[in-house]
Amino acid sequence: MERRMFLGGGAAAGAVMAQQAATPAQTAAAVRMRSSGYSPFTTPDYYTFANDLTIERNQTGKPHAGKVLAAIQAHSDDITLYAGGLVAKLIDEGYTGYLIRISNDEAAGRTLGHGVVQNEIDNREAAKALGCKKAYTFYYRNHRMDDCAEIEIRQRLIFLYRLLQVDTIVTMDPYNHYEENPDHLVAGRAAEAACWLAGASKDYPEHFKAGLKPHSVREKYYHARSPQGHNLVNRIVDISSYIDHKVRCNVANKGKGPAGENGSRFRAELARQGKKLALLGDDDDTANVQYVKHFLMEDWRLLGEQFGLGYAEAFRYIGPQPDYRERIRQYAEKHATAL
Ligand SMILES: [Zn+2]
């Protein structure tokens, strides 16, 4: 997408004031950015940037009031780790938010039933920490989603897009090269294809008989966890004001992932060795929060530092496309002559 197209998008006009182009020096420096080494997911040279890279900052008031956001994740820790700051920011700026989890996370839990019950609770608690109105789960089997009927997942998302009248999604990049987790790619592809089809008037007509209306998703934020290598990232989002939301939604993931109660476990492990880390404090909640903030959030602090921000997240942003019929009408107004 070229920058001039984004600037020309009518629905996005209000958001432009909060954005600015990154300088070439910032972009070049960030390309060389290294991981902190504290995160189990990011890797050196993680980010490469598009030429039209922009920085999205906080917006005052509620510029997104009346709009609906769906944050779609394969697993309970995807949105929280990679886009928790963005989702909290957009909801604070007026969006009504929903968190949609596609898998049941059965292959990653610590509790009875492979953690399915705890992960369900965690998904709801993470949604609350982000400010979402509701959390949904589709319960497809964890790490086996490439064996699922993608068209079925897509259809379920189309139903929710129409039911909730979703305007904007945040999800895994469906074109993420070098991604090893099949669930991430299936979730991203289904979420993307459903955006356009949700607005079609002939697909799944039974939805309309039930009272739903076609509704296209017009804005997308894609995040990735592995090196993309194809200059796809075009949006840096300043999440400095929302880092505590991001920390809290990750601490909510008790059953799986690198956050949850790992801080208090680490504090206990050190205590057994007769040691303590001052930053982990004197109680379990402080230990869990500080562990996430000082270790797991370090890559996002380093990313922000490249742009003079406290913390930042990186996305491929796809904005509203111009209405071609309106453009043709404008052309006719300018050029039409009397018969
Ligand atoms: Zn995942």
Q: Could you characterize what this model shows?
A:
- The protein is of the alpha/beta class and 339 residues long.
- The protein has a single domain (3-323), classed as 3-Layer(aba) Sandwich (Rossmann fold).
- It is 40% helix and 16% strand.
- A nine-stranded mixed sheet has the order 1-2-8-9-7-6-3-4-5, sandwiched between helices.
- β4 (96-103), α5 (116-130) and β5 (134-140) form a beta-alpha-beta unit.
- α5 runs antiparallel to α9 (243-251) and α6 crosses α7 (182-197).
- Mean pLDDT is 86; it is low at 1-17.
- The structure holds zinc ion.
- Residues 74-75, 78, 181, 184 line the site of zinc ion.
What is the gist of this entry?
By secondary structure, this protein is of the alpha/beta class. The chain is built from 13 helices and 9 strands.
What ranges have pLDDT less than 50 throughout 5 or more consecutive residues? 1-17
- Structure annotation, total helices: 13
The Cα radius of gyration reads 21 Å
- Give a count of the beta strands, DSSP E runs of length 2 or more: 9
Largest sheet: 9 strands, mixed
Q: Name the beta content range.
A: 15-25%
Instruction: Tell me, rounded to a whole number, the average pLDDT.
Output: 86
Overall CATH class: Alpha Beta
The name CATH uses for the topology is Rossmann fold
Helix residue percentage: 40-55%
Total individual domains? 1
Strand order of the largest sheet: 1-2-8-9-7-6-3-4-5
